[in-house]
Design goal:
alpha/beta; Rossmann fold; 50% helix; globular
Length: 310
């Protein structure tokens, strides 16, 4: 099926030249979503079809084509909204979503032992039982090569420079970016336990020269942003009473207090803050309501943002 207003020869050319597929995909999705009649694209199609098959000779028309898709993908509001360039193309395509809508990115954050893992599991079960395909992810992902290095550090089996450790945590998130975008594009909702917010709050809590909040944030800038961030609030004194506290490197009382302070500095109005001292059932009910709202927004075309763009 070819959307109205897009010359059939542009479709044909996109099939002939794989290097045009990414550009055409954004153009096609944007035209469908905004129901735009692409003025002048027919002429562009004639230009493409009249050009030599040599890739070098297509450069001028490729540039015109790329500019056209940029305007469409942003609803003629400018490319800055989606950050369209070769490095951000995956996010740009995700921001348009598939025809059936995309999956939502639900993030849980908070200090250690505040109940994030429990709520993540309950939420995934709750979403799946309501017909929303959902998966649970955790960061760090200790199954990858980078994740195994991080695990050894967290278990106090090895020591590393603080900046190096922060970059490893960040790399662990970046190495899963492509899979994350693919999952969301296919309609899968991801419920994630910790993300760049944790990385920033924890590293900055070490109070090392040069490792301030802004530097810590910079290493994750450009990653996909959560559609809903659920922050579980609990006094550090209460987390001390939870089973297992103290088993890992960062589970120290004073350090956790610094982490909480950093979360407060990072907090935005859009965060959904829940009192983690309430019952598991009450917390789950609120988290499920928040998540279902985010799922519906993503199904109806909410763009996927990028981390720290505010």
């Amino acid at each position: 099926m070819i959307e109205k207003g897009i010359d059939k020869r542009v479709v044909h050319k996109a099939k002939l030249f794989p290097w045009l597929k990414g550009e055409f995909k954004i153009l096609r999705h944007a035209a469908h979503r905004h129901r735009l009649v692409v003025a002048g694209v027919s002429g562009l199609g004639r230009g493409l079809c009249g050009a030599s098959a040599d890739r070098k000779h297509h450069f001028f028309f490729f540039r015109r084509f790329s500019r056209a898709q940029t305007k469409l993908a942003t609803g003629f509001s400018g490319a800055r909204t989606l950050g369209i360039n070769r490095g951000q193309r995956g996010v740009a395509e995700m921001s348009q979503g598939a025809m059936g809508g995309r999956g939502a990115f639900i993030l849980f954050e908070g200090a250690d032992r505040c109940g994030k893992s429990t709520q993540c599991k309950l939420l995934v079960d709750g979403l799946n039982s309501r017909g929303v395909e959902a998966e649970l992810w955790r960061y760090p992902d200790r199954t990858t090569a980078i994740g195994k290095m991080i695990d050894g550090y967290l278990q106090s089996q090895t020591d590393m420079d603080d900046a190096c450790v922060h970059l490893l945590f960040s790399a662990n998130r970046w190495e899963k970016r492509k899979l994350m975008l693919e999952k969301l594009a296919s309609g899968v909702t991801l419920v994630i336990d910790r993300y760049g917010h944790s990385g920033t709050a924890f590293t900055a809590a070490k109070k090392q020269p040069g490792l301030d909040l802004e530097w810590c944030k910079s290493t994750d800038a450009g990653l996909p942003a959560p559609d809903a961030l659920i922050y579980l609030e609990m006094p550090v004194e209460e987390t001390l009473k939870r089973d297992g506290f103290g088993g890992e490197r960062y589970e120290k009382t004073e350090f956790q207090r610094e982490v909480v302070k950093n979360y407060e500095l990072l907090r935005r109005d859009a965060w959904k803050c829940l009192d983690a001292s309430r019952t598991i059932e009450d917390l789950h009910a609120d988290a499920l309501k928040i998540a279902m709202g985010a799922v519906e927004e993503c199904r109806t075309g909410k763009p996927l943002g990028t981390l720290w763009e505010d």
